[in-house]
Amino acid sequence: MEQIVHSFVKEHQLISPHQTVLAAVSGGPDSMALLHFLCSIKNSWNLKIIGISVDHGLRGQESMDDLEFVKNQCEEWGIEFAGTSVDVHSHRSESGTGTQESARYLRYQYFERMMEERKADVLAMGHHGDDQAETMMMQLVRSARPESLQGMPIQRPFGRGQLVRPFLSLSKSQIAEYNARHQVRARIDPSNEETNYTRNAFRKHVMPFLKEQNPKFHSHMQAMSQRMREDQSYIREQAREVLDTMYFSSNMKKIVHFSLSTFKTFPLALQRSAFHLILNYLYVNQTEDISYLHEEMFMNLLYDHKPNAKLDFPQGLQAVRAYDEVTLSFDRSDEEDKYEYFLNAGEKVILPDGAHLYAEWGSPQEKEGDSVFTCDAHHVKLPFIVRTRRNGDRMRLRGMNGSKKVKDIFIDQKIPAHLRKTWPLVTDSSGEILWLVGLKKSGGSTDGSSGTWLRLHYENKAET
Q1: Is 352 annotated to bind ligand?
Q2: Residue 247 region, left (φ>0) first, then alpha (ψ -120 to 50), else beta?
Q3: pLDDT digits (tens, 9 = 90+) for 139-175
Q4: 316 is in which domain, residue-wise?
Q5: Annotated binding residue at 28?
Q6: Is 429 annotated to bind ligand?
Q7: For 100, phi and psi rounded to 5 degrees?
């Protein structure tokens, strides 16, 4: 066993000479074997080994005895020890999470604190190949995503250093043989025999059959885990090219916006990977509630023939498709989107998205454009009002008899539904709509060429 672990550690550069290594030890056979192995290489590698242990308080005196057992064993082997007790029940009540989730959170919180206090380089865990196989099978049952076959990483950043798993190349039986050969004592947690925990059920009912079919099943799954991690890492890196074509908001209200036609030019594998990178940004990596079905629903929304569609995700996230544009953002009420500002000549207003509207005196000779509106001051009543649209809004258009609904103008111009709620329009104080900014202008505001004129100028964020 020792040679297998030596080769595994060196191949993946998990531990280097002269480092400080924290060993997470529960008192069980796997973690005690890890602690013993690290002790065996301590002098030749010039390592500082610290055994750390956490009493979760879930089994009363028995779990306290586990902590004391680890402490005594560290003293016997001449190893520094650090341990603590945590209140899992209180954390579970306060956070609303399950018992196992709360225990894990408090355990890793303590590990991270010890990494900093002891200026450690590495946190070593005793997970072995059978644990890896169990994890991957459980993930596969829960999800159809490729990430489900990645399992536990051999190493990952943690605290000020790295979390490593030197025993992933071993089976549980190999660890048992090691402990017997070196007379390593350990304590057995009786809850490991209870099958009301999902992992224990897999361990007792699923894994024996798979190991019977392939005694090297743990090695098989570890090799697959490494390959899947490498493949997915490459795909995620390539998917960042997709993200480069998108708009990501830089304020507190997170929004992602992209062109559907551009998105579809990338291979399907990159589209799917980009979707999950987007979710990592929006949910700040907390994507446990997102399933394979959400991914399929999102892809169906993109490839549906309907020009407008909406999809609801957990925690109020919405994906909205409007023609060629797709926007993902957290749902806000219509009342939050509404605004109304008064604007007199010589003043400006700043809209919620950062755009500016200026009002100034002008002359009829000045040219208009999509971002400029001019009108004869005799035809309007100041102040101007800059606001969002209301139900039933209509405006008289230049070159057209009668009036047209603002809603229909948005549809004709293929303005995405989510943008219509905040699109600015300008009226005079009598309420007549003069300008649907950037789209249409009123027809009766520019008669004649003499007198006093007013000029409105719109600048969006890209121009300022």
Answers
A1: no
A2: beta
A3: 888 766 666 678 899 999 999 999 999 999 999 999 9
A4: 245-330
A5: yes
A6: no
A7: -65, -40
